[in-house]
Amino acid sequence: MKNAIEPKKRKPPAERREEIVAAASRLAVAEGLERLTLRRVAEELGVVPGLVNHYFPVADDLVAAAFGFAAAAEREAIFRGIDPLAPPLAQMRYIMAHLLDDSADATSLLWLDAWQATRNRPLLRAEVAAQMRGWQDAMISVIRRGVAAGVFGVADPRRAAMRIMALIDGFSVQAAMRSQIVYDAVRDLVFETVARELGLPPGALRP
Amino acid sequence: MKNAIEPKKRKPPAERREEIVAAASRLAVAEGLERLTLRRVAEELGVVPGLVNHYFPVADDLVAAAFGFAAAAEREAIFRGIDPLAPPLAQMRYIMAHLLDDSADATSLLWLDAWQATRNRPLLRAEVAAQMRGWQDAMISVIRRGVAAGVFGVADPRRAAMRIMALIDGFSVQAAMRSQIVYDAVRDLVFETVARELGLPPGALRP
DNA sequence: AGCAATATTGGTCAAACGACCAATAATCAG
DNA sequence: CTGATTATTGGTCGTTTGACCAATATTGCT
To answer: How far apart are CA A152 and CA B173, in angstroms?
Structure first.
């Protein structure tokens, strides 16, 4: 019984690092990138601030990693829920439903934080750009499948995906203002415009 | 010659207050809302930080006022440049050209800052909401004029304005990422979609 | 002219932050 | 088993921030 309060435990570096990023990601989603500090992450894990600083000598690295973790996790969760055997229209409807869900609020705020913070954090900007590319690639492949199946009338899947993502970005801004009236109206706009972009009838994507 | 360096001058409170807000607005546009602090504003004006604090005992008030000033100034500058005798289509094309101009970068970044900062600043959120309403109202009246003249095919001007503004918000996000390729593609999307929203041919608004 | 009001100064204060560092102890290689 | 490595601790340091305050000087009112 050397230390009755807390035995000093040591974890393999890779595991500890992942643990830190996960905690930081949780904090980022819950309270925003602004409040993501070394001290808060350390407190969340029950370790000393210096330890977090040991793994992330530059704080911006941690912010970028936390955002990347959260964004990738959410994207993968959505795409993991897709039935690969479902028709492309159903797949697209599933994606849109989750992106424009009421529960997407926290994610929208996180993205908004990230876009703003890229202004002064080059590392975060690279990570945000990478995550946006990840979304775009995923969207492109879904569109391609729809085109191959003959249900989407799209000439250039890549450009269509870019336009759809831009629309959803605009939706995130509205979500941040928390005006339910605007929120619903813009959601309708996104559903309609995306449907039109894919050569579908106006209500084809609405849940 | 009591003080050879700087004579202590006193200005009428209203004028001084306006001077402070103007300086803060300048700073907000140039460096972002993040770097808008009492000290920087004071330095910009050549006064002591305590003086700024005297006029704005709560710093959030100054941030909200600075954003409101900048946003209102830009909006009024655009609408003042509109020829009231020009046909509605030309008016709309003028507005869109200025909103999606390359020089709109600084403004886009300011709005992005503001949207993000509403998360923790209720006063700023109210100001942002007010400015968004201002834009929406201005847009509605232009649309109404076009509808009255029979050149815009719009059923509900209010909803059309909301949708158009949401599209432009999405464009601001892309502008913040500074990827020229995406930037141009999204600009095309906005031009096309707004034209479609107003019942115009696809290229009607492109400059 | 004299007085009240207050704009303006100059300074302090505590809080929070990232960065840094020496000391300790757990882990692993030889 | 022994020594090298390094994860982890606990603490300091300088910076920046918003807030606060007493003292002073200017303005406006009577």
So the answer is: 27
Cβ neighbours of B176 in A, within 8 Å: 115-116, 118-119
The whole-number average pLDDT for the span B110-121 is 96
DSSP category for residue B101: S
| Sequence letter at residue B185 | A
Of the candidates A179, A164, A156, the one whose C-alpha atom is nearest the C-alpha of residue B193 is A164
Average pLDDT, chain B: 91
Assign domain A13-197 to a CATH class: mainly alpha
CA angle A74-A76-A82, nearest 5°? 110
> Is the model's pTM score more than 0.85?
yes
Query: Which pair of structure tokens corresponds to residue A14?
Result: 């890779």
- Nearest CA-CA partner of A106 in A18, A33, A189, A195: A33
Taking an 8 Å cut-off on Cβ atoms, the answer to whether A129 and B186 are in contact is no
Closest CA of chain A from B37, distance in Å: 16
For chain B, the structural domain boundaries read 13-197
Q: How far out from the chain centre does Cα B84 lie?
A: 21
Distance from CA of B116 to the nearest CA of A (A): 6
Strand C nucleotides with an atom less than 7 Å from a protein beta carbon:
6-11, 16-22, 25-28
Which residues of chain A are under the pLDDT cut of 70?
A: 1-8
Residues A58-79 as b or e (16 or more Cβ within 10 Å = b): eeebbbbbbbbbbbeebbeebb
Q: Which amino acid is at A82?
A: I
Distance CA B148, CA B163 (A): 20
B1, pLDDT greater than 90:
no
pLDDT confidence of residue B86: 95
For residue B182, which of A108, A195, A115 has the smallest C-alpha distance?
A115
**Distance separating alpha carbons of residues B139 and B127, to the nearest angstrom:** 18
Could you give the dihedral angle defined by the CA atoms of residues A65, A69, A75 and A77, in that order, rounded to the nearest 10 degrees?
Answer: 180
Q: How many CB pairs under 8 A join A and B?
A: 100
Closest CA to A128 of A48, A166, A203, A71: A71
Amino acid in the structure at residue A198: L
